[in-house]
């Protein structure tokens, strides 16, 4: 249901209810009022007739007739509809009819001896006032018909309802038009939005927007800015990734052509070795791009059970042990200290530590040692994971740059993708931790990740994970 | 023709050295901008193959510095970014040609030959001397109506002698031209290649200057019969 129709129905229903209540209330008030006025007149007329009879100044028949003329002139004299007569009967106390007015019915108007009563005579309902004069032995009854009374009240209500009946449709129309006007700012926003293409992320104009619509427009504009910047960074990343892949591909193609063209078997073999190297490197780059995408997408790891940091790192160390052996490096992993610590996002942690280790492998000179250690800090609320190598390290002025995507350090020898530390930085940020890079004591690079941890299962025995994978 | 290659990716760098040597070029390869600048200071190159993005700066900066020194050395830029505005930046920055990665080795060699030819002020790609019409693209020459093909190393030596005909080139200078092949330069390699060249060319085309090296014999104006 449209907002306009909804509001319209609510308003029409509310207005109708108010009008109906007003009419009912007016009707009740009018009925009470009319009854009181007419009753007073009945009693006055009865007493007047009785006093005329008591004075003996008039015969009974004439006395009864007095009420008819008087009634006609005293009330609603101008309105023909309300023209009516009071009827009067004079009865002896013994029960004989002594006289009656012209318009009075033939039957006795009331059986009650005095005061107000309601009766039905000749098929008509009457309101009767009986005045008793015990001295004269008569009862004077003055009455008017109930039909007349209802007619009177009905006329008043009609006079009230009739104009309302004419005004209500106009009011309904006005409500409908007003709603259209009132909802116009929303309509404008809706029109602007529906006329845009899906890729149009420019902000909506908000200078003339109503104050109620302003938050909506601001919210939409904020959302569109975020979507636009996310899309832009995605586009930049894709473009960068494509360009970065072109260099290893170019190396592959050139070496393949050399292998095809060279008449010299030694040159051919050398080119094939180079091709393998380039394939390995391209493979690593593709894996890093996928890592980056995984970290960026912040994959929910619902199916992965949070385990201890140490056991996750042991898996990473196991994966990389053969690579360390190939490179002639000693990989020392000391994971005993903090085996009680928990980590809630093992995938991100694994990606971060693996990239740190691979970086260390790339930088470390042949035969040197790469160390992975971890220990709880801040009373066990955080865990520090450190990777240390004996490579050239990162110059202080480059530390801030190397975590940017596709930035390679001066010492990097052009073998990396420039993504490793960017991935580590992003993953650690997603884990709520921080990455620090600095010179290690005695040379080389010390990379430290400090992560918040779930509470540890203290006291649980874990296997000793201290390993030393020497070449 | 000695070419300086500045490229940080080691597989590509190695491939460029091997590939250009197959096309008859001698090359020296470095990985960083600083090394490239040092090599250019030392001189002795006929052209440069320059990567756009280097670990310690942009190839464009190196190029700007080279041009600021007034050098007209032919430079071919290699880049992974080959959108039009990158190409414009490269060419306006002083590059003579521009090639996007990944490229074809033969195209690279052809473009190199073209910018070297322009730098030498020749309209024809072929080089003519003393009855020899040498086609660098095919590494073959026509002499006395006979077509001779040369091995890359023979061609490198011949091309070096043809750069400044008549000038004497020492043995070490010629060895330098052969440097860059995977196998080391044997002490007698230059003599071996000169010997093979003499067998393919007319006798007396290459003269030995005792104690100094080799040079091409002066051009003999042939009478029109």
Please tell me about this protein's structure.
Chain B: This is Response regulator. Chain B: Keywords: DNA-binding, Phosphoprotein, Transcription, Transcription regulation. Chain B: GO terms for molecular function: phosphorelay response regulator activity; transcription cis-regulatory region binding. The complex is a heterodimer of chains A (471) and B (225). Helices cover 52% and strands 16% of the residues of chain A. Chain A has helices at residues 3-54, 60-74, 146-182, 184-194, 214-261, 265-297, 309-326, 346-363, 420-430; strands at residues 87-92, 97-100, 115-121, 124-133, 138-145, 307-308, 330-334, 342-343, 369-377, 382-388, 434-439, 445-452, 467-469. In chain A, helix 6 (265-297) runs parallel beside helix 9. Mean pLDDT of chain A is 80; it is low at 70-82 and 456-471. Chain B contains eight helices and 13 strands. Chain B has helices at 10-22, 33-42, 59-68, 84-92, 105-120, 152-163, 171-178, 189-200, and strands at 2-6, 26-30, 47-51, 53-54, 57-58, 75-79, 97-100, 127-129, 132-135, 140-143, 146-149, 206-209, 213-216. In chain B, helix 6 (152-163) crosses helix 8 (189-200). In chain B, 41% of the residues are buried. The interface between A and B is medium-sized, with 33 and 27 residues.
């Amino acid at each position: 249901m449209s907002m306009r129709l909804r509001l319209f129905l609510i308003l029409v229903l509310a207005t109708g209810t108010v009008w109906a209540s007003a009419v009912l209330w007016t009707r009740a008030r009018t009925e009470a009022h009319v009854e009181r006025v007419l009753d007073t007149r009945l009693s006055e007329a009865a007493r007047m007739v009785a006093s005329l009879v008591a004075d003996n100044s008039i015969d009974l028949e004439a006395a009864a007739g007095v009420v008819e003329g008087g009634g006609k002139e005293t009330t609603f004299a101008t309105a023909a509809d309300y023209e009516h007569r009071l009827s009067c009967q004079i009865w002896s106390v013994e029960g004989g009819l002594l006289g009656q007015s012209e318009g009075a019915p033939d039957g006795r108007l009331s059986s009650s001896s005095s005061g107000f009563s309601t009766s039905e005579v000749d098929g008509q309902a009457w309101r009767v006032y009986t005045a008793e004069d015990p001295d004269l032995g008569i009862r004077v009854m003055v009455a008017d018909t109930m039909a007349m009374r209802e007619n009177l009240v009905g006329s008043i209500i009609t006079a009230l309802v009739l104009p309302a009946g004419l005004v209500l449709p106009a009011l309904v129309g006005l409500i409908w038009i007003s709603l259209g006007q009132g909802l116009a700012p929303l309509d404008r926003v809706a029109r602007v939005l529906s006329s845009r293409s899906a890729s149009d992320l420019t902000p909506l104009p908000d200078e003339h927007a109503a104050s109620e619509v302003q938050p909506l427009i601001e919210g939409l504009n904020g959302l569109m800015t975020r979507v636009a910047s996310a899309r832009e960074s995605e586009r930049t990343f894709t473009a960068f990734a494509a360009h970065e892949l072109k260099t290893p591909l170019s190396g592959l193609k050139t070496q393949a052509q050399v292998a095809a063209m060279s008449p010299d078997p030694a040159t051919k073999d050398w080119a094939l070795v180079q091709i393998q190297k380039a394939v390995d490197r391209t493979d690593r780059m593709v894996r890093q791009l996928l890592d980056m995408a995984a970290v960026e997408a912040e994959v929910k790891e619902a199916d992965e059970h949070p385990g201890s940091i140490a056991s996750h790192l042991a898996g990473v160390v196991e994966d990389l042990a053969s690579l360390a052996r190939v490179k002639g490096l000693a990989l020392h992993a000391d994971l005993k200290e903090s085996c009680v610590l928990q980590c809630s996002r093992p995938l991100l942690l694994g990606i971060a530590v693996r990239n740190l280790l691979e970086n260390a492998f790339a930088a470390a000179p042949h035969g040197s040692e790469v160390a992975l250690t971890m220990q709880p800090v801040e009373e066990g609320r955080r865990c520090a994971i450190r990777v240390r190598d004996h490579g050239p390290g990162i110059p202080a002025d480059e530390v801030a740059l190397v975590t940017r995507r596709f930035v390679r350090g001066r010492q990097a020898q052009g073998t990396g993708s420039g993504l490793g530390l960017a991935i580590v930085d992003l993953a650690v940020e997603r884990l709520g931790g921080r990455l620090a890079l600095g010179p290690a004591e005695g040379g080389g690079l010390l990379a430290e990740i400090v992560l918040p941890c779930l509470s540890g299962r203290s006291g649980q025995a874990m296997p000793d994970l201290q390993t030393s994978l020497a070449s | 023709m000695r070419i300086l290659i500045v490229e940080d990716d080691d597989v590509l760098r190695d491939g460029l050295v091997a590939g250009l040597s197959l096309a008859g070029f001698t090359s020296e390869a470095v990985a960083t901008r600083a090394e490239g600048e040092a090599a250019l200071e030392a001189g002795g190159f006929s052209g440069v193959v320059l990567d756009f993005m280097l670990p310690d700066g942009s190839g464009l900066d190196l190029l700007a510095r080279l041009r600021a020194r007034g050098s007209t050395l032919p430079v071919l830029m290699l880049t992974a970014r080959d959108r039009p505005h990158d190409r414009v930046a490269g060419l306006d920055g002083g590059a003579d040609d521009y090639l996007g990665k990944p490229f074809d080795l033969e195209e690279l060699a052809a473009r190199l030959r073209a910018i070297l030819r322009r730098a030498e002020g020749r309209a024809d790609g072929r080089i003519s001397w003393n009855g020899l019409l040498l086609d660098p693209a095919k590494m073959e020459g026509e002499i006395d109506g006979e077509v001779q093909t040369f091995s890359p190393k023979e061609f490198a030596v011949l091309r070096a002698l043809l750069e400044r005909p008549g000038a004497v080139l020492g043995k070490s200078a010629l060895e330098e031209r052969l440097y860059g092949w995977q196998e080391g330069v044997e002490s007698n390699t230059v003599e071996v290649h000169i010997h093979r060249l003499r067998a393919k060319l007319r006798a007396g085309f290459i003269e030995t200057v005792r104690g100094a090296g080799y040079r091409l014999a002066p051009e003999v104006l042939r009478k029109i019969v």
